[in-house]
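#struct-help
A.M.: can someone run this one for me? Single chain, 253 residues.
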Amino acid sequence: MQRWGLIGMLMMTAAAFFGGPAHGGEGVLELRIYTCEPGKLAACNERFRDHTTKLFEKHGIENVAYWEASEGPTAGNTLYYILRYPSREAATKSWEAFRADPEWQAVRKASEDKHGKILAKAPESIFMTETDYSPPTEKARQDKVYELRIYTAADGKLEDLHSRFRNHTEKLFNKHGMRSIGYWSPTDEPKSKNQLWYVLEHANREAATASWKAFVSDPEWKAVAQKTEANGKLLAVPPEAVYFKTLDYSPKP
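D.P.: on it. Structure tokens below:
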């Protein structure tokens, strides 16, 4: 599993929509990734649990899901979460109001006076829209395991990748017990040009392993892969993946 440094730099400036097919009228999603100083993830979670999520709501930001990695190099020091906004412009205004809020400024000062510096670097941010084959992005359950996967398409193959997911892959995931939570297109370059992001829900980690084993050995999937890659591979590099556990303050479904 690769470190989340591969995900890219902070993308907080407003930009037009460049990416793949969108799920109309569903607003804009933002995945944010906070890398904490060693031993400071608990302090970060404390601040979110007691203050930050409520302040987001105050400023018109919808909390969708909060996770931390259950394994791999980011386990124990990284918070991942998804927010929803009516539009990109609304996101910009909400963040401006949040950062200027005296209540937030006091919370941040108090938590850093108590715990010291919490974040090791600036947050990473990826704005996304749902693809046309995505289910409406749902809240995360406490008793499930989640898997974030990032696919980077080969040059000129992004639409072919979307077509394969739309017509085949998502249905085969369901066949093998992997529930689709959301499929997203990043809205900012360069990710908008060649990436697909999505999250799957599994009953547990062992079920995830069994489901993937069944999926890759399924004759139907093998036939789909062979047909769709007759003119070249669809992926430029192997998928990135990270398994999540849902945090106790993540909104309930």
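A.M.: thanks! The longest helix spans residues 41-58.
D.P.: also worth noting: The chain has two domains: 22-128, 130-246.
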